[in-house]
Design a protein that fits this description.
With 268 residues, the protein is mainly alpha-helical. It contains eight helices and three strands; from the N terminus they run ααβββαααααα.
Length: 268
């Protein structure tokens, strides 16, 4: 978050507000675009569902031969089959239930994130325009919680997409040299997920900085309370001892020392 060496330290409070709003707005746009980048609508996904069904029913009869490591990163096994070079299926296929229903899950994840991000944008706008400083900081604290939830949501999206990528690779039987549409669309969604996480984390940093600036203003403008009189218990009050006899004696001796001028003249 925003510490002494944070890059947001050089920005004014107004700039922090504008950038925070713009970044959330960008996330709204990105989440809206992600709705239409659907890996579950690719031909490869439809083909993978058919291959998975054939695999589970034991009806896939194509033979694979001449297998060795190949591919873009040379870590997948490809085999010859009916004049094509196909990815070799794995012995086990994981996350089948998620993969079969990915058409529904992917749409729900993207639409729900778009709606939540749009709600956060509206909420954050009203939080920034609230006049009361304490109320404003409370709403900004809620905004941090909501944006943190969006970060977690994007993390969940990345995790689920990783499971479907693994299932697609387990099913295999896609041609070498041809772009795997399911993986390429998933990669584009990965980019959007990561971009939203980064932007949301930056916004959280900015909001914390805004709250700190508001607190500084409150401390400076708040009047200092007048000093309160200190109450002293009777047992703590200083003792005043006055010897009346001594005072009277001193007073009398002082009066005796006074000599009127007429008395002096008469004495002469």
């Amino acid at each position: 978050m925003c510490k002494t060496n944070c890059c947001c330290n050089g920005l004014t409070k107004d700039a922090l507000k504008k950038l925070s709003f713009v970044f959330i707005l960008i996330n709204v746009v990105l989440s809206f675009i992600a709705i239409f980048i659907r890996a579950a609508k690719t031909k490869r996904y439809e083909q993978a569902l058919v291959l998975l069904e054939q695999r589970n029913n034991g009806t896939y009869n194509s033979t694979l031969y001449n297998c060795y490591l190949d591919g873009f990163l040379n870590y997948e096994i490809y085999c010859d089959s009916e004049g094509k070079r196909l990815s070799k299926p794995d012995d086990n296929v994981g996350s089948q239930s998620l993969f079969k229903n990915w058409n529904t899950y992917e749409l729900l994840l993207n639409i729900s994130r778009f709606i939540l991000t749009a709600i956060v944008l509206v909420f954050f706008y009203f939080a920034l325009n609230k006049k009361d400083v304490d109320g404003k900081n409370n709403l900004l604290s809620y905004s941090i919680g909501f944006i943190g939830f969006l970060v977690a949501d994007s993390g969940i999206c990345i995790l689920l997409r990783a499971f479907t990528i693994g299932t697609n690779q387990n099913i295999g039987l896609y041609e070498i040299g041809n772009q795997n549409e399911f993986e390429s669309y998933t990669a584009m969604n990965y980019i959007i997920d990561i971009a939203e996480i980064v932007l949301n984390c930056v916004v959280i940093c900015f909001i914390i900085r805004i709250q700190r600036e508001d607190q500084k203003v409150v401390i400076v403008t708040q009047p200092q309370p007048p000093p309160q009189p200190q109450y002293m218990h009777p047992s703590q009050q200083p003792e005043i001892n006055i010897n009346i006899n001594n005072v009277m004696g001193q007073t009398q001796s002082t009066s005796n020392r006074y000599v009127h001028p007429l008395d002096t003249f008469q004495g002469q």
